[in-house]
Amino acid sequence: MFEGVKAAAVHNPVTLTELMTLRARLPHALIWAGGTDIMSRLRPYPASDGIDIISLARVPDLKRISRSERYIEIGALATIEETLVVGQHILPPVLVRACRTSASLLIRSQATFGGTIGIPDLTLSIPAALSVLETQIEIRSPSEKKSGAQWIPVQRLFGRMGDRSPIAPAVITRIRILLEESDFDFFRVVGEPYQQPGEAVILSVFAKFNAPAIAEFRFSLTFPQSGVFRNREIESAISGTDLPLSQREIRRIIRILMQELDGYSAKISRLQRERAGRVFELSLHQMNRQSISR
Amino acid sequence: MVSEVCGLQKRKVIVIQTDYHPTYDEKLIYPSIYGALCAAAALKTGKPARIIDDEPSYRPEMVITRKTALNTDREPTAELIDIQVNVGAYLFFGDEMIQQIAAGAAPIYDIDSVRTTIRLVTSPTPPRHHFKGLGFTHAHYTSEAHCSYLAQSTQMNPLSWRIKHLKSGKSRPAEQLKIRYQLLKDLLEQTAARADFNRKYAVYEMQKHKPQNISPFYRYARGIGIACGYGITGFSKSFSEEKKHAVTVTLAENNMVTVALSIIEPEAEKIWKDIICEILSVDRSQITIQYGSTAEVPDTGPDLLRREIYHISGLIARCCESIKSQRFKEPLPIKVKRGFKQPSPEEKRPQPFNGLTWGAVAIELEVDPISLDILIKGIWGTFESGRIFLHKRVVSALTKALNEAVHQCGGHRAAASLPSAIDVAVVKSESVLPSSANETSSGLLAAAFASAVSQALNTPISSLPITAESVRKILAREDHA
Amino acid sequence: MKITCRLNGKEVLFNTFADKPVSELLYEHSEVTSIIPGCRKGTCGNCIILLDNEPVLSCLIPAFRIRDKEITTFEGYAKTRFYLDVTRGYEEAGIQPCSYCYHAKSLLIESIIQENISPEPEDIINVLSVNRCSCVDEKDLVKIVETAAKYRRRRRVRRS
After folding, report:
1. pTM value?
2. Which of A277-281, B142-146, B151-155 shows the highest mean pLDDT?
3. Strands B246-251 and B334-339
4. Looking at A174-183, A196-205, B379-388, which range is the least confident one?
5. DSSP of B354-403
6. What CATH number should be reported for the domain whose range is B240-339?
7. CB-based contact (8 Å) between A1 and chain B?
8. Which burial class, exposed, middle or buried, applies to A149 when counting CB atoms under 10 A from its CB (0-12, 13-18, 19+)?
9. How far is B202 from B380, CA to CA, in rounded Å?
10. H or E segment at A32?
11. B311: pLDDT strictly greater than 70
12. Are the Cβ atoms of A199 and B468 closer than 8 angstroms?
């Protein structure tokens, strides 16, 4: 049936150097990590005439998970389930919840950490959680002369107006997450980010208290097709406020949030906007509840 | 269709049937369309062609308007029912659709006069799928949902309203189905008792007027709905396709029984063998079922045209009864063939459908104040679906049907990791034949669902499914669902 | 691309496209009848196979990933004695999955009881939720798996 069609060539580098050399030679090649996203997009095969695939499966450096006093480093090829098993007691609770809700067990065992961050047109649970944690990602660019490795904050992947900054031809190789103690964590996926990305919202909240006030408050609202919304003004307005927040205070914060969302991205649907306001309000009520029960 | 589109002689087209498992009845329409497109592409290019498709399929769009006149005692006296169905590019089984829709739309409460208008309209849109039925379920859903509106308009509990108005059925026209009112009342009461309907209904009725119910802090927008009614199995007695099928049963020496069928359905084999064993007192191992090949008999698709449960069981039973009467009188082998029987003209009120099933469904739900999804707290169903051969199998099939129906209405499970809370009971029947209750359950569930959502949101609901977006619109008063 | 692997214990050679889903590859293989590509995008959960004894959705695995691996489809699994435990689970519960999802659910149940002989209902539903066919209610699925696990425990005790 496919006479004359050139089949895809699969390259299997075994070291990082080999990977980067290949990448420099084949800048348009498809980087294949777990492959769950690529394979789940209905398409005919061969994907296109003569495509090159760089499979990362045999690069052991990309699977390594290591830990120091201050942070945990996860290789981009570590699967979500592996990370969850190894790090469930040390990873920030927001990230643990993000891993658990990211997909079913079977998919989690195949999908990789780097892969979920690297999907160019969809932002799912894990990048949503990483965006409120002090996370750095290591990207290696084949064009740079030295080692080519560069650490950048994960937020750099998301533009201010919801657009995604492309990293290709660079490759994500490691993720470094700061192990911070928190007093309040909140992570909730509303809707189905993968099946209905135009309706879903993901909220991640990380807060530290200095009784009776909120010492630090960070939050991110993720809209799968419109990137990650973070707002320093709202964060600083909440940081320093005494707990519990009054109903009036909560209403005021929600009003500001809604105004800011109106100016964020035109791609957010009305349902996403409504859900964002509601889930954010819920997180503030839960923070109040937690502060009282402490 | 391939020969028509490609201008080939029919004998030059060879159809190789591959394993194909569409969820519903895509088998009826789409293989022909894709087959024709693929054949045209292959002829044009001179190479093999393949089509991969991910298009969703839709039911015929049905708009049903019902207007009921109430007398001074708020009792219904007359009803106007107007039904318009958009069937897409092609109309399949038009006469049967009208029969089924009319049967489903007929009100089950006492009423003096009813006028029903049904229009089937073709349109330049993709052909529609029938999803297990030809409109009976949808029409019956509106009938039951309308019951709940009438109850609401008279400020009565929908359960009490139904019990009060399910009376004698004397006023029903002769061509309509005969309703077993007492059975329906019993099913309703049993379901309501298991669901604790009256208490929950009263509580949610008190709560529904509070505007803050749907806020993330209070989280209390709940509703409970109930519906009762009937369902049909297979087709009306006047459906021409039914006359084509026949069953032959042969009793040979050593009590060997052979059944020749023109359909392929190994799953129903157990039931058929049970019927034969019972009537002819033979051993299961002595029964052989011979299926017709699809080359000789058109394969009718997985769901819509399925007729094995009631009709084939009925034909097998009739064959066996006939053999039983001839046994020990006539020499072996005794061969009996039975096809579908037309209702005799002398019959005063012939039932237009065979294999009626009866049921009542209650559903309790909550509107999630964060996602605005409808979360199901519990479903209770009580059914009478003819003779039961495998009780667990029937309960499981009904549970599955309710699960599917609630999903199609827009309901979500309260927590994905918890088992669903569906409680199904099947009551004993005097019928000697089994019938399928799957269709009954989905129509009733949809009616109960709409009634419950309407209580939870304190707004009348007139279309399904209810999505989070439609809940948002209701809350924002942008429009009504 | 030429790919060799072990399919149900036999060495096989596929000459295919590298990015072809394994579900398609197996569907076209004459000895495999249990794999029917359904959604082709990882949502229906009907194309489960065991890849090196781990359950995977074969539509999400490209052909190049099965090189030198051990694939077990339902045909291969049904010949093992472990399948008996699962069938006993169906028998005792009095219910079994429909013909559409029977193979996938059986392999998933096997993967659950292989991993943990005393699985919690939540874990059972979590693993089985990958198969979207709702022909068997969750309560019955939990019962089936618990019964199958009981027989697996007995088998292990006998063996030890």
Report:
1. 0.80
2. A277-281
3. antiparallel
4. B379-388
5. SS-EEEEEEEEEEE-TTT-PEEEEEEEEEEE-B--S-HHHHHHHHHHHHH
6. 3.30.365.10
7. yes
8. middle
9. 18
10. strand A30-32
11. no
12. yes
State the nearest Cα–Cα gap between C158 and chain A, in angstroms. 31
What pLDDT is stored for residue B293 in this prediction? 45
Cβ–Cβ gap A9/C126 under 8 Å: no
* B47 contacts A1? CB cut-off 8 A: yes
Return the residue of B nearest to C36 by Cα: B19
CB contacts, 8 Å: A246 with chain B: none
Residues of A in contact with B216 (CB under 8 A): 278-279, 281-282, 285
The residue type at C59: C
pLDDT surpassing 70 at residue A47: no
- Cβ of B420 within 8 Å of Cβ of C137? The answer is yes
Q: Is B404 on the interface with C (CB under 8 A)?
A: yes
Distance between CA atoms of A71 and A177, rounded to whole angstroms? 5
Find the mean pLDDT for residues A101-115.
89
Which 373-392 residues of chain B touch chain A by CB within 8 A? 373
> Would you say residue A46 has pLDDT above 80?
no
Interface of C with B (CB under 8 A): 33, 36, 38, 40-41, 93-95, 99-100, 121-122, 125-126, 129, 134-140, 142
Q: Check if B61-235+352-475 and B240-339 are the same fold.
A: yes
Query: Which one of B217, B371, B476 has the shortest CB-CB distance to A275?
Result: B371
Residue B148, pLDDT score? 84
Provide the strand spans (E) within B215-350. 222-231, 246-251, 257-261, 287-291, 334-339
Task: For residues C77 and C54, give the distance between their C-alpha atoms in angstroms, rounded to a whole number.
Answer: 13
Q: Calculate how close chain C gets to A194, using CA atoms only, in Å.
A: 11
Residues C59 and C88 in one domain: no
Same domain as C62, residue C91:
no
CB contact C57 to A (< 8 Å): yes
- Compute CA A63 distance to the chain's CA centroid, rounded to the nearest angstrom: 18
Work out the pLDDT band at B306, boundaries 50, 70, 90: very low
Of A42, A271, A278, the CB nearest to B369: A278
Nearest CA to A281 out of A141, A167, A159, A186 is that of A186
CATH of the domain at C26: 3.10.20.30
- Amino acid occupying residue B307: R
Instruction: Judge contact between B191 and B360, C-beta under 8 A.
Output: yes
Q: Can you give the residue range of the structural domain that contains C19? A: 2-73
Q: How many domains does chain C have?
A: 2
> Cβ-count burial of B478 within 10 angstroms (0-12 exposed, 13-18 middle, 19+ buried)?
exposed
CB A213 within 8 A of CB A207: no
C96 and C150 belong to one structural domain: yes
Domains of chain B: which residue ranges?
A: 2-45, 61-235+352-475, 240-339
| A196-235: burial string, b at 16+ Cβ within 10 Å, e else | ebebbbbbbbbbebeeeebebbbbbbbbbbbbbbbbeebb
Q: Exposed, middle or buried by CB within 10 Å (0-12, 13-18, 19+), for B21?
A: middle
Question: Which residue of B47, B370, B476 is in closest CB contact with A278?
Answer: B370
**CATH assignment, B61-235+352-475:** 3.30.365.10
Smallest CA–CA distance, residue A159 to chain C, in Å, is 30
Quick one: average pLDDT of A243-252? 90
Q: Same structural domain for residues C89 and C55?
A: no
Q: Could you give the angle at which helices B136-153 and B158-165 cross, rounded to 10 degrees?
A: 110
Q: What is the pLDDT of residue B174?
A: 47
pLDDT at B352: 65
> B303 to chain A nearest CA, in Å?
27
Which chains border A (3 or more CB–CB pairs < 8 Å)? B, C
Do C116 and C134 fall within a single domain?
yes
Of A1, A270, A281, which is closest to B50 when you measure between CB atoms? A1
Residues of chain A contacting C57 with CB distance shorter than 8 Å: 106-107
Give yes or no for a cis peptide into A212 (omega within 30° of 0): yes
